[in-house]
Amino acid sequence: RIYQKMFKLVSYILPWREPVLLESEGAILELPKHIKSNNINHVLIVTDKVLMKLGLLDGLFKSLDLEKIVYTVYDKTIPNPTIDNIEEALIMYKSNNCQGIVAFGGGSPIDCAKGIAARVARPRKQISKMKGVLKILKKTPLVFAVPTTAGTGSEATIAAVISNSITHEKYAINDTVLIPSYAVLDPLLTLGLPKHITSTTGMDALTHAVEAYIGKSNTKRTLILSEDAVKLIFNNIEIAYNDGSNIEARKNMLKASYYAGMSFTRAYIGYVHAVAHTLGGFYSIPHGLANAVILPYVLEYYGECVYEPLAKLADIVNISKNESKKIKAENFIKAIKDLNTRMNIPTKISGIKEEDIPLMVKRAYKESNPLYPVPRIFSKQDLTNIYYMIKE
After folding, report:
1. 370 cis-preceded (ω within 30 degrees of 0)
2. What pLDDT is stored for residue 89 in this prediction?
3. Which residues contact 284 (CB under 8 A, 6 or more apart)?
4. Prediction pTM value
5. How far is the C-alpha of 368 from the C-alpha of 216, rounded, in Å?
């Protein structure tokens, strides 16, 4: 707790910045002008093969051509991006004399792009040595983040979550220099999202907002951002899930994801993420899916220490009236479970091997303590219990 309090005090003097927001239908077509205005003539575009195949980048390519901006495409990013992805793309960045990076996709391409930017800034420092907080502290190339899912909030955060394909370890590098300079919130880019990605990435954003809200490092602004995010998600996620072409719902989910990202990058996250990161590292479980499943278990496990903040969130989304904080909190957790059920998200994680649990517990414990300002500090036995609860 002393570490967390000291870190919260230090955070007030860190050089936080907010991305320049481009938000509207078709906002992606405006991005090249902003790239040009920063005297950047060659960019590395970091994306994945699925988005390339869908043709989602075609409009961006044409707009870049009109502005006479040269682009090199790295499209080998995988879910839970690896150090190998970063090093491979870094070679392309350097060999083509790129000056900036456009991250186009979900959290994986954005995190990969941040990792590349970190390596450009610190060419003699390996990604594994940047794990933790404030290990870069050097100016990076500008990163222009274009999220195509409404979930990770990576377009607004100091974090890049990277996997080691050899050790199966998944961890975050955190530094204010990794906050993207621009974020493009274009709902048209999310219209083709499959239902299962709409649901799990949306629940990822909800996890960010809730974990930030119940933690002990909030500011007045992060509380408001979390509340706004939770309200937008509860009001829009099922609409977006059931009617993927609803522009208003898509726009609101993108904004909710951004608000949640803005909140948790200052107030931090908790045990849901610590556990989810191990599942991503060991079994490549999609991060949003893992968070969606784990969230209600961890909230219940916290017990009475989260009744008050969860009761406030229950009031904000009009779940219950004139009841005790305990009942309101329980109803809020039930509402999360009901959302998962209605969107066909499972209640357990399949494929967890019992022999892997001790190492996952060790890694989750190390990630979360002392960094995450959680409502109640879990022991290794507590974390072990969580893994067995979520195991199918």
Report:
1. yes
2. 98
3. 79, 80
4. 0.95
5. 13
